[in-house]
Design goal:
The protein has strands at about 1-5, 10, 15, 40-50, 55, 60-70, 70-75, 80-85, 90-100, 105-110, 115-120, 130-140, 145-155, 160-165, 170, 175-185, 190, 195-200, 220-225, 230-235, 240-250, 250-255, 265-270, 280-285, 290, 295, 300, 305-320, 320-325, 330-340, 345-350, 355-365, 370-375, 385-390. The chain is mainly β and about 400 residues long.
């Protein structure tokens, strides 16, 4: 397969566009094939972060190409990568990497906040204007377990790799957005902008949905750079709870001639059809709410106090409707966490009555927190709440 010429940017006294990723004329004035005389400027190509949107603290790859003048590869070049976090924290150098024989370089990070990665092109002489390439990373909250997996397939000796990052999900009555983030880790780009990338399939039937029906429901998909994509779903408690499989649909294009060695204005590449095997799973559970209160929260000496609370669960009540309802006959574990660093200690288990309410007495002689926990199930998310007690 032939893929179009890439964007090439020269950093000599500025950045000049000489090609296009999706096709276009070959660069004019380029040296003849085989002429590798050292030029006076450097070129950057496809600097990116993959994926460029993901939960805070999950792994991402920052990568790019470096070449001399009219795109001859620059092997052995030391490239310093900087990160400028959102907010008032200063920009800082986070890694120095060396380009390989094809001018490709890469480094892995776990950014905890949104920000911008950048590289500054080296100049041959002091005073040479240096080109700058940037790539922005957007973080999301990581409140539930995050799963990240690298998927790969090979064709004609060329391997395409992509990282997929997903989180477990707690659904509520109102729909919420669920994200599947993907980043291509090898030189190339998505072979198809609509149908390639990660997607979900539900295992269990629930309500009006049969197994596998979520893969074609309430979803959007976008490769927003050559290397990053996000597929989104709008899920609520009317969608099935349980395990969901994550699959990856190809193809991905691996560029086999990054630098247009024969000077014909095009690059050679191989489409690698990624198999649709299950690469990981996530758990989708419906939300719950636990409360706790104390008959007295401040007193002198040891005292028996009443602890009272309730449990509610978001439940499917018809094929098309969910509601947040009281949870009768539900076990609630009580812990006491004394002031200091000792940590919580399990005390007893109580159960809610037919109205979803529990009551119990507890002797308390120290300051600390009483904690009520509903441990959840395979289909219902856990929840907890605490009340602070002060003993003088």
């Amino acid at each position: 397969m032939v893929v179009g010429a890439r964007n090439l940017f020269s950093s000599a006294l500025g950045l000049a566009l000489v090609g296009s990723l999706l096709g276009g004329p070959a660069a004019t004035g380029a040296p003849a094939a085989g002429d590798r005389a050292a030029p006076s400027a450097y070129t950057y190509l496809d600097f990116a972060v993959a994926p460029d949107r993901a939960p805070a603290g999950s792994p991402v790859q920052v990568h790019g190409f470096v070449g001399r003048d009219w795109s001859w590869p620059a092997p052995g070049e030391a490239i310093t990568i900087y990160f400028d976090p959102a907010g008032s924290a200063p920009r800082e150098a986070v890694a120095t990497v060396t380009s390989d024989d094809n001018g490709w370089f890469a480094a892995n990070f776990r950014p905890k906040t949104s920000g911008t990665y950048d590289i500054v092109g080296p100049g041959e002489d002091e005073g040479t204007v240096k080109g700058v390439r940037t790539a922005t990373f957007t973080s999301r909250k990581a409140l539930l377990p995050v799963r990240t997996v690298v998927v790969s397939d090979t064709r004609s000796g060329h391997t395409a790799k992509a990282r997929v990052t997903v989180q477990d999900v707690v659904t509520r009555v109102e729909p919420q957005t669920v994200y599947l983030d993907a980043g291509l880790l090898t030189p190339g780009f998505a072979g198809n902008t609509v149908f390639s990338g990660p997607f979900l399939t539900n295992r269990s039937a629930d309500g009006r949905y049969g197994p596998g029906e979520i893969s074609s429901t309430n979803q959007q998909h976008l490769w927003h750079t050559n290397y990053s994509a996000t597929r989104t779903y709008r899920l609520s408690a009317v969608h099935p709870a349980g395990l969901y499989d994550v699959r990856f649909l190809g193809p991905m294009t691996v560029v086999t001639d990054q630098w247009d060695a024969d000077r014909d204005g095009v690059l050679q590449g191989v489409d690698v059809p990624m198999s649709e095997k299950v690469i990981t799973t996530i758990r989708v559970r419906r939300a719950s709410t636990t409360t706790i209160s104390a008959s007295s929260t401040s007193f002198t000496g040891s005292r028996n106090i009443e602890l009272k609370g309730s449990v509610r669960k978001v439940q499917l009540i018809s094929d098309t409707r969910a509601a947040n309802r009281w949870a009768p006959n539900t076990a609630v574990k009580l812990y006491f966490d004394p002031a200091g660093s000792a940590g919580p200690v399990y005390k007893k288990t109580v159960r809610t009555n037919s109205s979803g309410v529990y009551r119990t007495t507890a002797k308390t002689s120290k300051s600390g927190k009483w904690i009520a926990k509903y441990v959840g199930s395979s289909l219902q998310a856990p929840s907890e709440r605490s009340v602070t007690i002060t003993v003088r």
